[in-house]
Design goal:
Number of helices: 8
Number of domains: 1
Largest sheet: none
Structural class: mainly alpha
């Protein structure tokens, strides 16, 4: 899933629950639940994808949208907005494991496999990453934006 979809889901969790001891772990777990859904990826090997201009542009857009979401929550300050921001970033955090792979690809080095328990879980749950997964991503995005609209009022 895109970081934007992870962030939207995390924000909804944080805005809906007032208990950070429940919301933050749920936001983290939501990352893997969303990655288990069919979702988008570019065609090609991991190294080709990470080095592509299309991927870089999509990554920049994704980061901008995530920070826009945080800015929206900060500006509107709905109930539990601080927890919403924390959970939005928490839901995206497992993808930070990918930074080393991105750097390796950009340096034209071998792209390492994800390691450790988190890496293993991350790779196992992502069973369907294909361009057609964009339809699931778009539907999730639309649904979460509509749901978020009611929480931010």
């Amino acid at each position: 899933m895109t970081a934007t979809n992870h962030a939207l889901t995390g924000a909804i969790i944080g805005l809906s629950l007032s208990n950070p001891y429940l919301a933050i772990p749920l936001a983290f777990a939501s990352h893997f639940a969303l990655d288990a859904l069919p979702h988008f990826t570019f065609r090609g090997s991991i190294k080709e994808v990470l080095r592509s201009k299309k991927f870089l542009i999509s990554l920049i857009i994704d980061v901008v949208l995530c920070f826009t979401l945080a800015g929206l929550l900060i500006a509107t300050q709905p109930p539990n907005w601080k927890l919403g921001v924390v959970c939005a970033f928490t839901a995206c955090s497992p993808d930070l494991l990918q930074i080393g792979r991105f750097i390796a690809a950009k340096r034209n080095m071998a792209v390492p496999k994800l390691r450790g328990l988190m890496g293993e879980i991350h790779e196992r749950v992502q069973w369907f990453e294909r361009p057609i997964g964009a339809f699931v991503e778009a539907a999730w995005f639309a649904t979460t934006v509509l749901f978020l609209r009611f929480l931010v009022r």
